[in-house]
Each structure stands twice: as C-alpha cells, then as structure tokens.
Amino acid sequence: MSALANARPIVRHIRSTHEFDRLMRKHSQTTGLPVIVDFYSDGCGPCRMIAPIFKKLAQEVGGKAVFVKVDTNALYELSSRYGVRSLPTFKFFLGGRKVHEFSGAGEQQLRHFTQDIIQKAEWENVMLPMENLLSYYGKQDASKTPTDVEKVYTKCVDQVKDENPAKLCVGAVARNLAKSLKKKYGSAPEFEKRFLPEEPSANEQSGDDKKAGGAGGSKKTNNKGNSDQPNLHLATKEQLLAELENRLDAERDAQVEDEEDDNAEFDHGWTPSPFPERVTIIGGGPAGLSAAIYAARAGLKPVVVAPPLGGQLQGKGVDVENYPGLFNVTGPAVVSLMRQQAIAYGATFEADVVVGIDVSERPLKVKTNSSVIETHSIIVATGAESNWLNVKGEYELRGGGVSSCATCDGHIYRGKHVLVVGGGDTAMEDALVLARTSESVTVIHRRDTFRASKILAQRVAEHPSISIKWNTVVAEILGKPLSLGTSDGDNVDLDAPAEKVVTGAVLKDIYTGEETTIDADAVFVAIGHTPTTSFLEGIVEFNPKHAGYVLTQGTSTKTSVPGIFACGDVADSIYRQAITSAGSGAAAALDAERWLSEEGLGNEESDFEAELLAELLENDGRRGADEYNVYEEAGGRVSGMKESTGAEL
Ligand SMILES: Cc1cc2nc3c(=O)[nH]c(=O)nc-3n(C[C@H](O)[C@H](O)[C@H](O)COP(=O)(O)OP(=O)(O)OC[C@H]3O[C@@H](n4cnc5c(N)ncnc54)[C@H](O)[C@@H]3O)c2cc1C
C-alpha cells in the first residue's frame, strides 16, 4: 500500500450531492478505485450495528477501495436518486456504474461484495495502447495495415461503457479483445496499467503533509508523457477547474481526518434506563420534533420513536417556501435541521415503528418491534398519509409533477396545465387554489356529482379556468425522463434512474371503458388522507366528524387518556401544514410538562441519584467508600423505578 493510500480518510462522510458526484467522477476517471457507499440514517439500529464493521473493513482493505457514507436524512434527494428504500443500503460502484447492492446489516455480504469489486477493479485496470496493438499486429499479421488496426482499436474504444473521455481501449473490453486475439494468433498483445499508483509527493514522503493527495489519491491515470503537475499559467479553463476540484477534494479529505469518531452520529440513540421515561414522542416529523425541542429544553429528556425514513416532508425534494425563517431548504433538510436541534438539547431517538401502546397500568408502555419503553406520558405525532391512486406512473413521478399538496406545490405549475383528481372538499379547494395561478385546471372525478359541500362544488363548476371530466378515472400517469446533466455541462451517468416529469395522463370512462390521453404538467391527487393511528385503536377517542383523526380536548392537545397528547396532522384534519404541526407539537410538550408536574411525576432518576449521593456521603464516615454497594442501599427507594428493575434489587 502506498504512503498516500494510508493517508486517505478511512470513511468519508458525504455532505452534498455535488460532492458525491465529484467523488464518483474522480474515481471513475482518475483512480479506478471502487466506491462503496453506505446509505444510513443516524436513528437506525442496524445502521448502528454495521457502522463499526464498515469502518473496520475500510481499514482492512486499505487503499484498494473508497468507503463513503451518505446520511439519507440529510441527503434525501441523493438517496432517492439511487432508489434507497430501506436502511442500511450498500451500493458498490466501479467506473461510475453500480455493480452490486444489498440492504441490511449483513457483514458477510458486505465483505463478499467488497472483495468481489476490488478484484473486478484490479482485473479491469488494464489499457491496450494503440502503439502496443500496432506492434502486436506487426509481429502476428503483417497483412493488417495501420488503418485496419485503427478500426480494431476504435471498436474497442466504442464498446467501453465507463466514462472514457480520453477514448482509450481499456478495462473488460480490452481484456476481451486480447482474449480473442490470443485465440486467433496464439498470443495476446501487451497491456499496460490504466491507473497507476501515485508516487507520494515530496511532502508526503517527508510526512509533512500526508493528506495532500486526498481520497483515492493512491493511483493516477496512465497518461504517457503528461506532466503530473499542471502548469497553471498555461492551463485551459477545464484544467484549472479540474485542478480546483482536486484541491477541494484534498482539503475535504483533510477535514474528514480531523473529524471525531465515526460513531458520534449514533450517540443520541435511546438506551433503556431503570426509570420510566417522562415523555415519549411517537413520530419524527415537524410536530414530533418540535415537541422534542420543547420537552428537551424543559429538561424532560424526551425519547422520539420514529423510523429512520418517513414523514410527509421527506417526500418534498423542492424547497419548503412557507415556513417562516427558512429559505432555500428542502423538506428533508428542514426535518434534518429540526432533528439536529432536538439532539442538541438532549432528545434521544429510537429508530423503530410503534406497534402498540399499553395503558392498562402506569407507567404506560410504548411497544415497538424491538423494544418496550415505559413512560409517564406520550405525545402522538404520527401524521397523516395522503391516499394515492396506485396507478402506473404515479409512484415514480412523485416529486416530478405528481403531488398530494396543492397549497405546497401548486405555485411550481404557474401558467401550466394541471389535473386534480377527486370529488371531495379537498379536491375542490385544490382546484380553486390552482386556478389562481395555473393556465388550466381539469378535475377528474369518478362519479357524476361531487361529494364536496355545495358551495365549493358550485364555485368549481362556475370557474372559467376549471373544467370537469365526470365518470372518469385516471388509468395511468405519463412522464418523460429528465437528463441528469449538471450545470457545468458534465453528464454523470452513475447508473441512476433518470428523474421524470409528468407529461399527461391516460383517462378511462368508467361506463364505456374508452381510454383517452390528456396533456398535463402536474397531477394533484386529492382523494383524502389517512391519519396513522392504527396502533391507537380502542385506546383514545377519535374525532367523530373526521374518521381516524385523534380527538383532542378544546384548544389543548390532551386526548381522552390522561397523559397522552396528540399533535400535528394526526389530530388536524383541516390545516395540515408543517408550521401548524410544529406549533401544535410545541403546545403538546407544554401540555405534557404541565400534566407531569400536576401529577408530581418529576425526575425520578436524578432524585434517586441525589438520595444515593446523600446516603453515600453519610455512610462515608461509617465505612470505607469502596465497600459501598448501590444495590444494597437502594432498599426503600425503588418505587420510582421500573417494576422489573425494582424486583431485581
Ligand atoms: C408532498 C408534500 C409536500 C408538502 N409541502 C409542504 C410545504 O411546502 N409546506 C408545509 O407547511 N407543509 C407541507 N406539506 C404538509 C406537511 O408535510 C405536513 O403538514 C407535516 O409534515 C405534518 O407534520 P407531522 O409531524 O404531523 O406529520 P409527518 O410529517 O407526517 O410525520 C409523521 C412522523 O410519524 C412517524 N410515524 C408514523 N407512524 C409511526 C409509528 N407507528 N411509529 C413511529 N413513528 C411513526 C413517521 O415516520 C414520521 O416521522 C407537504 C406534504 C406533502 C405530502
């Protein structure tokens, strides 16, 4: 392993999509190293389990591969570009192409695919220069003219699938060509290495600046005759930009090496304690995280239970423009900021789904797939999910024109043609909102009358920009791919599924079955929301007027069960916005804090510690401190502890 390979950061944390693309381009074009990507989330248990193994493996293989981590919460767009649906997901890239992938914390698979891609990279690290091919044919088949040889060479170049700006005969294609020639003539032409290990610079040799080469700097492209160091005075704009990128990379790598322990991001995971929690918050969207910030700042050390991916804003790749104080921030980034703020004040996270709540005795119990959390109070903030049509094209075009929130995304389609699907109040409101800015709105409804209130339905029917298609359903949503080219003209084909945008829909008449196509730039699905409340069935009262929504008392967030509060979309069938959810999350934390203090449920853990300390100091005079046994001494003070722990003492 070269000195420089040793200098590479063990695992690099990617901070932006641009950084990721740059890194992929660099290793595809100048080092030939495989890139192994861990898509993780800081709240996911299996991600936590595999993280040290990933780091160890990176150390073991040294400079033969580049190991990077992508936080799916912070880089949601990048994760969805690669179709990450569960965590952790590992993807293995070579030459910008995805070669392997798997999800889950499987050490064996991780090791197997890592070894495999390293071998593949080494096998493909060959180049067949034109001059070698000419001299080969000169010896083997003198009848071939230089033009014939050039044709063979060009065919090889054309078949190379990786990015190949220098138009070289390289990799597996060069190997296959050599194999065919060997079969025909009995011997193969001579290869050269495509990527060469880079010589450590003077600084690196002296150890002055080990980081200068940065990630993947252990190899360089085999460009015969080119000087390694560009003369910046004579360089073209492209060379200067390339040099700038190299330096940025080196700088970034140097920063990574200075970063603290890789596992620091997992430090805020929830761990069971002998005492019940004071507040457990179910849900990690704006409502739950706002409640967590307030509860944490009140010293309640809340636990937030939520799966690593989820919440409505995670699906909003464009900016959230109506949250006061936030500019140029996408939905996932807003959630990530809220989460960081909650962590900063001491909230902990259990990355799981709540499957049930036990209210038969106090403390209450929150059950997930992998844990039981005993808690004095609960804040439910599990949001509401939009109902979808489940037709072809709908899922992959979400974010590309398919939306369930006209208030949120309508302005993007200013001056465009849009469809609204539905016949209830929400569909009518959406159509009226969109008609203010869009060129035309077509409402698609499966019946011949609207279910919506009369006044709204009438306004829609009379609006000059709105037309209605009765007895009609959407059979398919149509789209076209968007090119993934970057603004500087680079086209990075990273084997990513192309982003798509809506171009129209196929409509079907429910009586005749006749299908027609309609052009449109967006489809707004307004067929209702389903609050995520199945785990609360039979426990709290639901809103009799809005099925599935948790009923709260008056203007408070109290539910029918003392100690259980509800906030955000799960209890709000009307406003359903990030700002209103965050506001009610704050209210829920304040309500819970007041309820805990009215019930006299203080901080049992610190009370217990204070009592023990007092006894310890008292006992210090009687016997040696090293004889002290906490468990012996806990005797009369187990009432605040969990039943299980109390029984053990
Ligand atoms: C595409 C789209 C775009 C939007 N754009 C905007 C916008 O621009 N501005 C705006 O103000 N609003 C917007 N909204 C609405 C906004 O996202 C919601 O009003 C807001 O997110 C509601 O917050 P919440 O915390 O109540 O619920 P959610 O954000 O839905 O969060 C619910 C949380 O609960 C978790 N959860 C669910 N079930 C369980 C369970 N059983 N156990 C544990 N956890 C669970 C979820 O994983 C998630 O973390 C948009 C909505 C959509 C769908």
Question: Overview of this structure, please?
Answer:
The protein has 649 residues and is of the alpha/beta class. The chain has five domains: 3-121, Glutaredoxin, CATH 3.40.30; 130-192, no CATH class; 277-386 and 532-598, FAD/NAD(P)-binding domain, CATH 3.50.50.60; 402-527, FAD/NAD(P)-binding domain; 604-648, no CATH class. Strands 8, 9, 10, 11, 12, 13 and 24 form a seven-stranded mixed beta sheet that branches. The protein starts with a helix and ends with a helix. 41% of the residues are buried. Mean pLDDT is 83; it is low at 1-7, 200-219, 223-228, 257-265, 484-498, 623-639 and 644-649. Residues 282-288, 305-307, 310-313, 315-316, 320, 322-323, 353-354, 381-383, 386, 403-405, 408, 532, 535, 568-570, 576-579, 581 line the site of flavin-adenine dinucleotide.
